[in-house]
Design brief:
Helix content: 55-70%
Radius of gyration: 32 Å
Shape: elongated
Strand order of the largest sheet: 1-4
Length: 140
């Protein structure tokens, strides 16, 4: 098993996969920075200057912590329940940009690959040659 793993690692598959993961993580950060820093401010401007990433729809209001006169907590604070659609849409935009760029990269790589010529046909076997001779003889 160790020998097989060594052969696998030496072939470059493991190295290629590791490099791909590192590049994907870095590319994801670049796209997130692009969307957060350049795209979303434009979208925010279109939505009356609101921070689009913080847009949410409240389902229930939260409550503050209540402390009694003796300094003990009477009731715990309850966080508001909200649907954070702005964050979701921001992540969807990130995904769409990454998907578009990956599509363009794959398309460019496929275009750069030269079409491999078709392998030459295999020479006919002796049985095929004999059958062709019989066929030709029957046609006469």
């Amino acid at each position: 098993m160790l020998k097989e793993f060594k052969e696998f690692a030496i072939k470059g598959n493991l190295i290629d996969t590791a490099v791909a993961f590192v590049m994907a993580a870095a590319f994801g950060k670049v796209i997130s920075a692009f969307v957060d820093g350049m795209v979303m401010p434009i979208v925010g401007k279109l939505t009356s200057g609101k921070d689009f990433g913080k847009m949410e729809f409240p389902l229930s209001e939260g409550t503050k912590e209540v402390i009694g006169t003796d300094g003990n907590v009477v009731t715990e604070a309850i966080a508001a329940v909200t649907i954070k659609y702005g964050t979701f849409i921001t992540v969807v935009i990130d995904f769409l940009i990454v998907a578009l760029v990956m599509f363009m990269v794959v398309k460019a790589v496929n275009k750069l690959k030269k079409a491999e010529p078709a392998p030459p046909p295999a020479p006919p076997s002796t049985s095929e040659v004999l059958l062709a001779e019989i066929r030709d003889a029957l046609k006469k």
